[in-house]
Write a structure and sequence with these properties.
The protein has 201 residues and is mainly α. It contains 7 helices and no strands. 72% of the residues lie in helices and 0% in strands.
Length: 201
C-alpha cells in the first residue's frame, strides 16, 4: 500500500494517522469509562508528544537527515515540559525536567533507530520499540526522582513501569498503523552475494 503513495503523502500519513489512532483509542476509553469524557482529547494531545517526534525522526532518518534528531528532541522536550501540570512543575526543578526530558527523547530516538532501521520483521520492530520505550520511560523517571532527591518507593516504581507500558503499548500501536502507509528503506543483508568457490586441487 505504502509504495503506491507519493513520498510526501507517506510522510503526512505517518504524522497524522498515529494521532488519529490515539484519538480513537482515547475516545473508546472515554465511552467505556476508563477516561473522563471531557479528558480524552487532552489525553490524546499529551500522548501525541511521544508520537509526533518519533514519527518525524523516522521520516528524517529515511531521507538522510537523522542528525536533525537533536533539534527534534529539543522541541519535544519543550513541548513535554510545557504540557506538565502545575503540581508536577512544583515537584521537580525546572533544570532537571528539561535535562531528563531531553535525554529521554534522545534515547527514544536511539530505540527508534534500532527498532525500525536495524531489526527485521514488522512485528519484532514494534515489540522492540514498545519494550525499549518502557525501559527508557522507567529509567528516565527514576533519574528525575533521584536528581530531585525524592525517595522512590516500590509502589512508585511499579506505577512508573505500569504507566510506561500503557503509554508505549498505545504509542507503538499508533506508529505501527502509521507505518502501514510509510515505506521504510529496505535493509541490505550483511552476507556477501557471491560465495567464492574453492579452486580445484
Amino acid at each position: 500500500m505504502q509504495s503506491k503513495l507519493h513520498p510526501l503523502l507517506q510522510s503526512l500519513a505517518l504524522l497524522v494517522v498515529p494521532c488519529l489512532v490515539l484519538l480513537i483509542i482515547n475516545y473508546i476509553f472515554s465511552v467505556t469509562g476508563r477516561v473522563e469524557n471531557s479528558a480524552y482529547l487532552t489525553a490524546s494531545l499529551k500522548m501525541s508528544i511521544f508520537v509526533i517526534p518519533n514519527a518525524f525522526y523516522i521520516i528524517l532518518y529515511k531521507y538522510k537527515l537523522g542528525y536533525l534528531g537533536f533539534l527534534v528532541a529539543l522541541l519535544a522536550t519543550f513541548s513535554a515540559v510545557n504540557s506538565l501540570a502545575t503540581n508536577q512543575l512544583a515537584l521537580f526543578s525546572t533544570f532537571s525536567l528539561y535535562l531528563i526530558n531531553f535525554i529521554y527523547f534522545l534515547f527514544l530516538m536511539g530505540i527508534i533507530y534500532i527498532a525500525y532501521f536495524v531489526v527485521n520483521g514488522f512485528k519484532l520492530k514494534n515489540i522492540i520499540f514498545i519494550i525499549g520505550g518502557v525501559i527508557v520511560h522507567t529509567f528516565s523517571f527514576i533519574g528525575l526522582f533521584s536528581i530531585n532527591k525524592i525517595p522512590l518507593e516500590r509502589v512508585i516504581i511499579r506505577d512508573i513501569i505500569f504507566r510506561g507500558f500503557n503509554l508505549y503499548l498505545m504509542v507503538g500501536l499508533a506508529i505501527a498503523i502509521g507505518l502501514l502507509f510509510f515505506e521504510l528503506p529496505k535493509q541490505v543483508d550483511s552476507y556477501p552475494s557471491d560465495i567464492e568457490e574453492d579452486d580445484d586441487l
